[in-house]
Amino acid sequence: MEDQLAIYGGPKVKSGPFGSGQRFGIEEAKELMEALQQNTLFYHFGGKVKQFLRDFNHIYGVNYSVAASSGTGAIHIALGAAGVTLGDEVITSPITDQGTLVGILYQNAIPVFADLEPHTYNMDPASVEARITGRTKAIVVVHLAGNPCDMDAIMDIAARHQLKVIEDCAQSYLSRYKGRLAGTIGDYGCFSTNDFKHISTGDGGMVTVNSGEEEDYHTVHAFADKNYRRFGSSVMRDLQTLAPNYRMTELQGAVGIAQLKKLSWICGQRTDYGSRIGAGIEGIRGISPHRVVEGNTSTFWFYMLRVKEEELGCSRNEFSEALAAEGIPCSAGYIPDVVYMQPMFQQRSAYPGSLFPFDITGINYERGLCPNAEEILRTAVRINVNEYYTESDINDIIKAVHKVSNHYQKN
Ligand SMILES: *Cc1c(COP(=O)(O)O)cnc(C)c1O
């Protein structure tokens, strides 16, 4: 019987492989060779990181950006430039990569988690506002999985409370909020080019400086480079404050130049495929699609639906296993739990042997703090999206979600 689930011995919806492709080629090799021929791999003396940033700035329509050695570094740089320091609170999302949080804690500031909108999986502005205290210095919004946050509301809150806004765009290249590119709306936009993102330089990152002011750019730049300020061959080493070294090398810059040329195609494919999955599963009883607000563009780093367990009469895990058995690459949830349930927050052990900086305010990270976020991770099924998938791969994903849902609805 064709509609017998594969997990119970029926035929799989997808038996062959998914479309795949080669993300690096001769274009990257050529840029790398030129980088080596420069006889320096230092960003300030070579031309590759500079070219990479010029191209990136052109795509993003910004005057200034700074290269970094990782997305984690990019976010730390933005926090440092924003003046986040000891005892400040920074409001962010409980469903994110821990790279969002590292810089906050290294600045000895305290992460405060806002709850999420149940279907976009992005920060709910009302919850953000409710978490503001006299210590709040900044908001780090996370555009999760390529889907832009409600930036008008966030920017309005930030303006009223004089907070800096940092956009974590590690998963959201070329995502658009009401037509504007995510990463150009807050004070700073932070990107990652680690090997799992839309484009890769092995590791790397970028920070956009959205004020467009030269002095701001110098502050950001210095925070990425031990607070050195470089002018031609001279270096100003006056150290007033502490800053790490998150410099990008010419090798990363070289690969990045070639990768940026593919970015528009990659994001276009992902937007198309994610949107098709969304349209294809719309209206299935017991399934909540990944919501992209009308007027916005998601570039789908992944597609994440939610299972209404009561309506479907199966658990999220059963659904996810049945879907995987149909040959669809997917997984139950995203991260295992909201980040504040990690031992580092539960035991306040960021710095071993100390409760710092959590003891500054005695902040509590108890279960139930962000109920929507907790429920999202408990009921979500994440489906891989890749630019090399074919249209028939996408049709099979849709078919398999229907097949598995139909089966459980009947039981
Ligand atoms: C990948 C990622 C980061 C960290 O980037 P790295 O380059 O791995 O340091 C930060 N935030 C989010 C949301 C990410 O997905």
UniProtKB/TrEMBL annotation:
InterPro entries: DegT/StrS_aminotransferase, PyrdxlP-dep_Trfase, PyrdxlP-dep_Trfase_major, PyrdxlP-dep_Trfase_small. One of its GO terms (molecular function) is transaminase activity. It comes from Paenibacillus sepulcri. This is DegT/DnrJ/EryC1/StrS family aminotransferase. It holds the Pfam family DegT_DnrJ_EryC1. Gene3D superfamilies: Aspartate Aminotransferase, domain 1, Type I PLP-dependent aspartate aminotransferase-like (Major domain). Belongs to the DegT/DnrJ/EryC1 family. Keywords: Aminotransferase, Pyridoxal phosphate, Transferase.
